[in-house]
Design a protein that fits this description.
This protein is of the alpha/beta class. Helices cover 29% and strands 25% of the residues.
Length: 325
């Protein structure tokens, strides 16, 4: 039996992502075979493809989240059934394919109300935001927080969740159109970072105090400015590096206002089955309560994975990109 997959043989630009035929795996004990219906595309995938992250052994199939239907159950699997729709998020990769084998304990039962493509675009982002607001930094009512890339997929969810928790949200964006997106998502203030100094503007908005937390997935271009935006005892949550790796710093760089630096990786927060279950439950409750809403993504065929990466890296994504097998 074979399947279609994007097999990464060499690191490089988007053009290295090419569709091929490869052997379809069979589930072993405690595993399931999924037929994917929608595959999420993330900046993590771009870092893996380029070689910035050397976490996928080559040749290998990239992709860290997807939604699918169970086609086969391995020996000893209970609590799941053939034909059931489930999602997964995993650092074990394997997403850019029509099928994959998954540990049964990693399968996430999904709510019926959210379509496959929206779930594939949103699930990992929502898990990430749950970590950002409750674990990397606990957002509470009365705080002011800074969200970079506030019109992006994670940014929109982050603005919504922080506002729900009672925080004042300042979002940075690149265009007036993106400012409108961020404001609809929940940002109280937006800063056009290409037109104004975001550090000075944050200080103006906060009356010189700064923010309790700065959420920064941009990295190199914004990191030092994010540090400068923090109030005393504030937290810089650096959870990505879309503009490149952050320059080195020393502990004394944090001493000016006794600030903290956190670098969360969502996989570390779902490293056990009970942690995954707890975080998933928190996310689906947030969906049910209307705290966050699923992202409507750009959808492309699996064969167009290279174009999906180009769209993401050019910042032309509507907040999510999904591949359809």
């Amino acid at each position: 039996m074979t399947m279609q997959a994007i097999v990464l043989n060499d690191f490089g630009g988007p053009g290295v992502l090419k569709l091929s035929l490869t052997a379809r795996p069979a589930p072993g004990p405690g595993e399931i075979l999924l037929r994917h219906t929608a595959i999420g595309v993330n900046f993590h995938d771009c870092y893996v493809r380029s070689g910035l992250y050397r976490t996928l052994a080559l040749p290998g199939i990239p992709g860290i989240e997807a939604v699918g239907v169970i086609e086969a159950l391995g020996e000893g699997v209970t609590g799941l059934r053939l034909g059931q729709r489930v999602g997964w998020v995993s650092g074990r990769y394997g997403g850019y394919a029509t099928h994959r084998v998954l540990r049964a304990a990693e399968a996430i039962a999904l709510p019926d109300a959210i379509p496959d493509a929206e779930l594939a675009a949103t699930l990992m982002k929502a898990l990430t935001v749950s970590v950002l607001v409750s674990r990397a930094h606990r957002v509470t009512a009365g705080q002011t927080v800074l969200v970079h890339a506030a019109a992006g997929g994670v940014g929109q969810l982050l603005c919504s969740w922080c506002r729900h928790l009672g925080a004042t949200v300042i979002g940075t964006v690149g265009t007036r159109e993106k400012a409108a997106v961020a404001e609809r998502a929940g940002a109280h203030h937006t800063i056009l970072y290409r037109e104004e100094d975001f550090v000075a503007r944050v200080r103006q908005i906060t009356g010189g105090a700064g923010v309790a937390a700065a959420y920064d997935a941009v990295g190199k271009e914004t990191f030092r400015g994010s540090l400068d935006c923090l109030d005393f005892e504030g937290t810089l949550v650096n959870y990505g590096q879309a503009s490149g790796p952050v320059d080195p710093l020393t502990p004394s760089d944090l001493a000016v206002r006794s600030v903290s630096l956190v670098r969360p990786i969502v996989f570390h927060y779902i490293r056990s089955d009970d942690r995954l279950a707890a975080l998933s439950a928190q996310v689906f409750e947030a969906f049910r309560a209307g705290v966050i809403r699923p992202i409507t993504p750009l959808t492309l065929p699996l064969a167009d994975a290279a174009r999906a990466h180009e769209v993401l890296e050019a910042q032309r994504s509507p907040g999510g990109v999904v591949l359809l097998p």
